């Protein structure tokens, strides 16, 4: 997962897309859920404290929104270390094949994640 996140974060078109996914001072509809842009402190809090739990079964998780939050924190220049628990929770909720701490194939994870985000953004809004 780490290598995929790093590759996406350093791909300018991907990074720019996710950072601008939720424009400032506007609500955006993603997969039928209205989300609003957070400040970077709120993004950091979200990705750092939301750990995968059984209660996430009830919560609607948007992987694209978690990637948006993660990219905003990574590229804010304010923090040297980022722990993406919120993104991990989204992966465990949205991609059940990756719901553990075992080693997985990077290409398989990348394809599954991109397909899921494509479906979420393209067909869910």
* Strand adjacency order, main sheet: 1-2
- Supply the number of helical segments: 6
Question: Roughly how much helix do the residues carry, as a percent range?
Answer: 40-55%
Described by strand count, sense and barrel closure, the largest sheet is:
2 strands, antiparallel
What is the N-to-C order of secondary-structure elements (H for helix, E for strand)? Answer: HHEEHHHH
Strand portion = 5-15%
Structural class: mainly alpha
What's the multimeric state? single chain
Query: What's the gyration radius in Å?
Result: 14 Å
What would you say this structure looks like, in words?
The chain has 125 residues and is mostly helical. The chain is built from six helices and two strands; from the N terminus they run ααββαααα. The chain has a two-stranded antiparallel sheet with strand order 1-2. α3 crosses α4 (63-74) and α4 (63-74) packs antiparallel against α5 (85-94). The chain is globular, with a radius of gyration of 14 Å. The protein starts with a helix and ends with a helix. The mean pLDDT is 81.
Please write out the topology.
Elements (H helix, E strand, L loop, with lengths): L1 H8 L2 H8 L7 E4 L2 E4 L3 H10 L13 H12 L10 H10 L11 H19 L1
Antiparallel strand pairs: 1-2
Helix pairs in contact: 3-4, 4-5
């Amino acid at each position: 997962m780490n290598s995929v996140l790093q590759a996406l974060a350093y791909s300018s078109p991907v990074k720019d897309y996710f950072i601008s996914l939720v424009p400032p001072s506007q609500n955006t509809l993603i997969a039928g859920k209205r989300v609003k842009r957070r400040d970077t402190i709120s993004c950091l809090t979200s990705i750092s404290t939301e750990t995968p739990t059984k209660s996430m079964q009830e919560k609607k998780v948007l992987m694209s929104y978690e990637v948006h939050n993660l990219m905003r924190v990574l590229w804010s220049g304010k923090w040297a270390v980022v722990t993406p628990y919120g993104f991990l929770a989204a992966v465990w909720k949205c991609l059940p094949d990756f719901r553990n701490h075992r080693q997985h194939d990077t290409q398989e994870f990348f394809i599954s994640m991109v397909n899921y985000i494509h479906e979420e953004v393209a067909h869910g809004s």
